[in-house]
Structure prediction request, 746 residues.
Amino acid sequence: MVNSKDNVIPLKANKPSVDNSKLRDAALKEPVHKPVEQLPRGLQAVHLLLSKVLQQGMSQFFNQADDALFERAELAGSNLEQNSFFEAMRTLRMAKANLAQSMFEALRKAFVELQNTSASNVAAIDIYGDHDLFADDVALVSEDDLEEEVAVKAMVSAHKQQHQQSLDHLWRRCFYLLGRQGEDHIERLPCDAHKLVTCFAAQLDGLAVAIKIKILLLKIFERSVLQQFANAYSLLNQRMAQQGVLPDLQRQISRERRAKLNTRRTRVRADTKVQGHALGELHELITDEDALIPTLNSKVEENVLSSQHITQLLENFQHQVNAPLQSQQDARALSEKLSALIQSQGQVSQLDRNIINLVHMLFEYIWEDPNLAAPMRAVLSRMQIPLLKVALADAAFLQAGSHPARQLLNEMARCALGWQESDDAEKRKQDTLLEQLELIVQRVQNEFVEDVTLFTELHHQLKKFLDREQRRAELVAQRTVDQVRGEALNAQAKAAVEQVLGKTCKDLPNVAQALLKQAWSRVLQMVYLKQGAESVAWSEKLDLAEQLANIVRDSAQRNNEAELTLLVRKMEADLADVGLDSFQSRGWFEAVENHVRDQKPRQQVSLDLDEACSVSAKSEPLDLPNLKSQAEVAPASEQDSADEHKVARESLAPSDYAMRQARRLSQGAWLQWKNESEVQRCRLAAILPSVGRYVFVDRQGKKVMELNLDELAWSIKDEKLRVLNDGQLFDRALQTVIGDMRRRRS
Prediction:
């Protein structure tokens, strides 16, 4: 078995050849444009063009697949893997003719089936419904089949989503040419992506290639064949429109949508209960003091404005307002102008009055929301008039959390949560998030009339932008967390080493303390970090330190020079492993050796500690600043300890609300730190239980601060740190508005 790249069979400069080379382009040279005579001539022309598109796509696929398989073989890590790619390349070349012909036949068959007026085949290909998935179903599918199914589903879904409008228009025109026969279902479109991909995947099953190669070929099929079809959709629609096939299709679709919208609006207004609990309760709670639009005068009912009339007034009013809102006072003044304009045109029905008043109060809440910075509140408040138009036209806006307009507003508020205005004017100009939100608001104001799909499009656009921003921020945050973790573990290791060496170095001369505390401590720290304090290696290194200490202590009573020499050799090797310079290490050891030699029992005169240091210094140049005495080290440690006790505070009780809130914080929570005049928004990037640290970063992932649990709890208790509410903005606003009115009524 080969496991190393060194043992892979060397590749030749040219790709391996296949004996049956004449098959290389045979499939693509055969006539594949045989017309489907049963179909109208217009659809025959569509079939002809799509057949040519498929021919170009398949030619591109075979070229790209050949290159990709050869490159993968060249980079293979073993002979077995390399052979699998070469075999797949050979198999694909041999099966080229059959594979291409099968795809052409599948496309032609799809056109033939257009004559079939039944839609039984439509249900069979619908794999995108929201069906429940049970464990028993999964058990019946192998891992390879499941992986292939997921890949196919993702590929088809992405293609349809990206080209939804072009496909819809193409099917409408094809259905028109059919004389509107059969069920009007877009899945009947002959170039449906699911039909093409599943047909191709079935052909690959017959080649018996490995699943990873099959997935690779499916990806290449997507980039070549499906992309060729995508390029053809617009061309086909353009040609068909020019030849008189539904030339005003877009206008027709707009009329259909308007008709559906009016039908839904009529149905909604027949029963105001469908506006949901919020409007029903609002009708009972609201007073004219709260309202933007006062109660309807029951004596003057002949001049009640329709919802369409109010929407048109809003449209005109919106285009007249150009100045951005700077404060809540500006927003209130704007709302009062709007109210005066509506009332000048006539009376407002009870239902529309409730809608207008509720939306007004929701945006009043947004202006007062402390979770958002003032510039972000100003941006979101510009959505008031467009969303009021949505609420008047679509009852689901106030009732369903899944409404596209509500989802967009909530997403905008969520991403604005951690935003903080920069003090630097240049950075403010380069603020991509604020710029993105302003562009979205501008598009809503300029483009929204009645089609809520605009909000879906903008929501997807914002999500893509945020995904890119988040990936970048997460990379920075991960580096920050890793650094904090490393620093904390180093500090932990250092403290553990200082504690054990403090006992070992007791009553030792300065030269021995210098060796253990400045040199051997690095060995102990490395072992602590890699293997921990419970490891055998940790015990062994501590034992060497104890041996050195015992030799130095006993040097005045017995001759142990040989024992010291053996110990020094062991310790020198370990010091070299942690990267200490051998010359520097030798200086420390010679100082200890000189001290032990001078303490031999036959020597009558004993040198004191200061003389031992001077003797070691004369024997060979040493880095004297590193040889700090115990007397120099101890006072500093005592001072540090004293300072620590001055700053430290008692731990809060577990039942204290601040401690409970600190313990409940989860990764990803947003908070606001306020210290004197400084305000900083930060996110809890990581909780590190091993070192007892909470790491906070800003929106870009840069570290803001790190706290332990007690510091975090005290910061919350002292109101220096406030947890921001990251719940859905619209829902929070709705609950708060209704709650405030309930309290006033009670």
In short: Residues 301 and 491 are 78 Å apart (CA to CA). Strands lie at 304-305, 347-348, 670-675, 678-688, 693-697, 703-707, 721-723. The chain has four domains: 21-119+142-247, 267-450, 505-640, 657-729. The longest strand covers residues 678-688.
